[in-house]
Amino acid sequence: MIALLQQLTQFLPKDSVLLTDEAVRPYECDGLSAYRERPAAVVLPNTLDEVQQVLKFCYQHKIPVVARGAGTGLSGGALPHKAGVLLSLAKFKRILAIDPKSRTARVETGVRNLAISQAVAPFGLYYAPDPSSQVACTIGGNVAENSGGVHCLKYGLTVHNILEVKMFTMAGELLTIGSAAYDSAGYDLLALITGSEGLLGVVVEVTVRLLPKPEQAQVLMAAFDDVIKAGSAVAEIIAQGIIPAGLEMMDNAAIRAAEDFVKAGYPVEAATILLCELDGNAEEVEHQIGQVNQILRQAGATEIRQAVDEQQRLQFWAGRKAAFPAVGRISPDYYCMDGTIPRKHLATVLGRIAELSQQYGLVVANVFHAGDGNLHPLILFDANKAGQLEKAEALGGEILELCVAVGGTITGEHGVGMEKINQMCVQFNSLELTQFHALKKAFDPDGLLNPDKAIPTLHRCAEFGKLHVHHGELPFPELERF
Amino acid sequence: MIALLQQLTQFLPKDSVLLTDEAVRPYECDGLSAYRERPAAVVLPNTLDEVQQVLKFCYQHKIPVVARGAGTGLSGGALPHKAGVLLSLAKFKRILAIDPKSRTARVETGVRNLAISQAVAPFGLYYAPDPSSQVACTIGGNVAENSGGVHCLKYGLTVHNILEVKMFTMAGELLTIGSAAYDSAGYDLLALITGSEGLLGVVVEVTVRLLPKPEQAQVLMAAFDDVIKAGSAVAEIIAQGIIPAGLEMMDNAAIRAAEDFVKAGYPVEAATILLCELDGNAEEVEHQIGQVNQILRQAGATEIRQAVDEQQRLQFWAGRKAAFPAVGRISPDYYCMDGTIPRKHLATVLGRIAELSQQYGLVVANVFHAGDGNLHPLILFDANKAGQLEKAEALGGEILELCVAVGGTITGEHGVGMEKINQMCVQFNSLELTQFHALKKAFDPDGLLNPDKAIPTLHRCAEFGKLHVHHGELPFPELERF
Predict the structure, then answer these.
(1) Which of B56, B160, B183 to mutate against chain A (most A CBs within 10 Å)?
(2) What are phi and psi of A316, to 5 degrees?
(3) Which of A123, A241, B156, B341 is most buried, by CB atoms within 10 Å?
(4) What are the CA-CA distances from residue A278 to residues A143, A297, A305 (Å)?
(5) A75 or B472, higher pLDDT
(6) Predicted confidence (pLDDT) per residue in A389-426, tens digit
(7) For all residues of chain A together, what is the average pLDDT?
(8) At the top level of its lineage, which domain of life is listed (chains A, B) (predicted)?
(9) pLDDT of residue B182
(10) Rounded to an integer, what distance in angstroms lies between the CA atom of residue A64 and that of residue B287?
(11) Candidates 3.30.420.10, 1.10.443.10, 3.30.43.10, 1.10.238.10; correct CATH number of A2-88?
């Protein structure tokens, strides 16, 4: 194997091929450190030509390939294959073109999410999807995971903000997918590739849509003594046709952790807080702030505060954005879940999570994108205490199955990767999984790209043995069907 | 063959199977009457179970199947196969569920587009995509073609307004695709199926998103003596971050035809008119009307009129919506094209179309969704004059190739069908077409669903013999590259 992999230096500079155990160690996991694996080799190509040669070589010799951006993923999607090549795209950092008139930018796959917005800022533009990891994560990784962020309620996920990608197939063929126009002929491969977690191809270039920076942004923070009241406020905001730029919810455990960490000014006694950001032109924002204020009051908010200036607005958000590390400070370990549910089941699902938390004896802090029903329950545990990791994983699995049961899905924006592959058996039936495998074969007949991730084999599902509960065949009779 | 097809009556009521030449004739074409073909049989199943049995039967006997909604398509996508079964879904007309709280409706595939908005109107909601054929066209057909309409600039195409579909594969297996939640795990089959022109499966149920009706809508009509000025007004409206609910452009030939037909109140001397609709709450609309007014004035509009009341607003739109039949009144025949280009090339492309019109000696009237660059050039001709049909087709082909050359695509919302299958060879290279065929095989290995449509064989492209001009390898040096 090593002798074979050493042949990679025939078309890559020597220092772009890492083969020693020591050299490949930094690549052994992504942001989800619970899973670790060392690849047989890491390659760091410098040109598209080198990427193509690596792929052709691996295709010919049937060597698995896992592509990697910044490695900030949270589901083990970039976990290396021990008999495979880890293909790092870190060197593809150039912004190739900015077209302020068409409001697009064409960038290489390794460009960081935030770097796009920084580069186009002089034109008054920005790139809307803003995952929490946006300082570090790359646009190629964003495409692989169909990343969202606080603003995706109003501005959409990655799939809604890209126009065209250039992608290598496993055989090393370069495809151009999508177009600069509003729609494209042929099958919609752009949406298919987006969120496919590196199983269908290696994206090397992305043309993104840019948006003009809104004239104004304003945020309201509301406290509630009851999560159901907060949930109904969310429903009413949306029902009135208001689309906030961000609509986030945190429960008491998350509020306390965040306040303790960054002093965001949150009321630590509140059961729940809602953060609602509105953006647009000044009149529009002022009008909507008035509407939202009234809705929050009517829903029974115990306190409503409007950021008095830009500094306070950023402070309100700082607490939310630091919620994960803040929870990390109060617990030796935490397990961040990522399920999405139809908004109307928020209160029911939160109630059930509280029950499960008691049952497992593990604290769960809830932080989530309330506007689009994307939950991030953080399960607190201590991996050094025997059995706690397994308990946390089991509790996490139950939460994901609960999301499916109310008509939701096991992932909002973090992807399936390794982490949630068993829960895919709950979400999809064997016909649907078979269709996924057929589709994978159409791009990668030998199954070499990112093997064993995202789509479970039927064999694995049979072993996992959980019932398929697709779309609301509810195991919990108390939940109303969607 | 007939003996075999008669077996269909084993699982369908007798009057749901049409076999005589006379009985199948009404199904020989869709809205594009230039292509006609009679199917071997027409079936009109009444239940999903019957649809499944028809598909299983045809799959077993390798009989081609073409699904059909209302038959209003404009690219021959529902053209029958002469040795195949035409599967009419006309009887699936039930609205299955309306959920005003989640703002969704679940409907059968044969429900008419407008019937959805009518059914949900009592809840203050509507379904946004509004193709011109919305009175007649079905939601299943909308999914097959990824239909747009006047409002898609602001509210998106069909793919942006549906959440879940139930679909039979050619083998008769029922898949549920998508979910009621914001995102879904697994490959994004929902986007893949949408716009796949009936080649991947037969959609039988659709869950659509609904939107609250805007508080107010207002329209401005502006006249220009020069199409370049109108084009720059469009660019400036978008550049200022205004997203009109509709932004439509008509040239002099289209203005005269429409005015003559419906007396919309258009200035018949104008080179071009722009219709710009703004919707939202009253303050927002008023503010934006002011902004747009200023932009239009600065761009050199010779006349700007704001609809004084709802009746005049509808009258302004009546002219635009009747443009196709209006042109039909002044010419024995017309050929409606549907290409999409990056907005910034509007003026250049219109100039080139004018040259081509002169060169071919055929009048072209231009009507289009200016906001999203979706052109509908109408080529006027007389099929009774020898050679004119061929001339019109050749001119149409050149216009589509022009769209590809500037970085656009050969279809905005009408689909490829039979009509534009040769131009697919211009838009995609052989690698990309091969990928499309592999993907088709993953759903329909025997190629029985809607054969010979939408995706050309490599053999066909070799015969067509036109150069692939993907993404801006320009045959016209005077056009700037995207």
Answers:
(1) B183
(2) -55, -40
(3) B341
(4) 26, 17, 14
(5) A75
(6) 999 999 999 999 999 999 888 887 889 999 899 999 98
(7) 91
(8) Bacteria
(9) 66
(10) 57
(11) 3.30.43.10
Q: Which residue of A has its CA nearest to B187?
A: A196
Tokens of B356: 């081509």
Q: Which of B174, B182, B194 lies at the smallest CB-CB distance from A340? A: B182
Whether B480 has a pLDDT exceeding 50, the answer reads no
Which residues in chain B have Cβ-Cβ distances shorter than 8 Å to A436?
A: 186-187
Contact assignment for A482 to B176 by CB distance below 8 Å? no
Mean pLDDT of the region B423-451:
95
- Picking from B112, B120, B117, the residue whose alpha carbon sits closest to that of residue B141 is B112
Burial, B448: exposed, middle or buried (Cβ in 10 Å; 0-12, 13-18, 19+)?
buried
Q: What is the per-residue pLDDT across B46-79, written as a single tens digit (0 to 9) for each? A: 999 999 999 999 999 999 999 999 999 989 999 9
- Per the structure block, which two tokens stand in for A190? 């752009």
Q: How many CB pairs under 8 A join A and B?
A: 225
B412 contact residues in A (CB cutoff 8 A)? 181-183
Contact B471 A179 (CB under 8 A): yes
| CATH of the structural domain B331-464, one choice from 1.25.40.850, 1.10.260.40, 3.30.70.2740, 3.90.226.10 | 3.30.70.2740
The closest of A325, A320, A128 to A211, measured between CA atoms, is: A128
Domain ranges (residues) in chain B: 2-88, 95-212, 216-325, 331-464
A187, A341, A403: best to mutate for the B interface, most B CBs within 10 A: A187
Query: Of all residues in chain A, what percent carry a pLDDT higher than 70?
Result: 96
Distance CA B146, CA B162 (A): 10
Who has greater pLDDT, A437 or B323?
Answer: A437
Closest residue in B to A171 (Cα) is: B431
What is the mean pLDDT of the segment spanning A146-150? 89
How many Å lie between the alpha carbon of A360 and the closest alpha carbon of chain B?
26
CATH for B216-325, options being 1.10.357.10, 3.20.20.70, 3.30.70.3450, 2.30.110.10: 3.30.70.3450
Q: What is the mean pLDDT of residues A370-387?
A: 90
Q: Which residues of A touch B176 (CB under 8 A)?
A: 432, 470-471
A438 with B436: Cβ contact below 8 A: no
The average pLDDT across B176-203 equals 90
* Out of B99, B179, B413, closest to residue A183 by CB: B413
Taking CB atoms and an 8 Å cutoff, what residues of chain A touch B161?
A: none
Chain B hits for A103, Cβ within 8 Å: 238-239
Under an 8 A CB cutoff, do B427 and A186 touch? yes
Residues from chain B that touch A181, judged by Cβ atoms under 8 A, are 340-342, 373, 403, 407-409, 412
- Tokens read off for B57: 């039967």
Could you give the CA distance from residue A390 to residue A387 in angstroms, rounded to a whole number?
Answer: 5
The CA distance from B269 to the nearest CA of chain A, in Å, is 30
pLDDT at B474 over 60: no
Q: For residues B344 and B407, is the Cβ–Cβ distance under 8 A?
A: no
Tens-place pLDDT, residues A198-218: 999 999 999 999 999 998 999
Asked if A217 and A245 count as a contact pair (C-beta separation under 8 A), the reply is yes
Check if the interface score ipTM surpasses 0.90: no
Q: Do domains A216-325 and A331-464 have the same CATH topology?
A: yes
Q: A162: which chain B residues are within 8 Å (Cβ-Cβ)?
A: none
What DSSP string runs through A229-298? HHHHHHHHHHHTT---SEEEEEEHHHHHHHHHHH-----TT-SEEEEEEEEESHHHHHHHHHHHHHHHHH
Q: What pLDDT shows up at residue B478?
A: 37
The CA distance from A267 to the nearest CA of chain B, in Å, is: 30
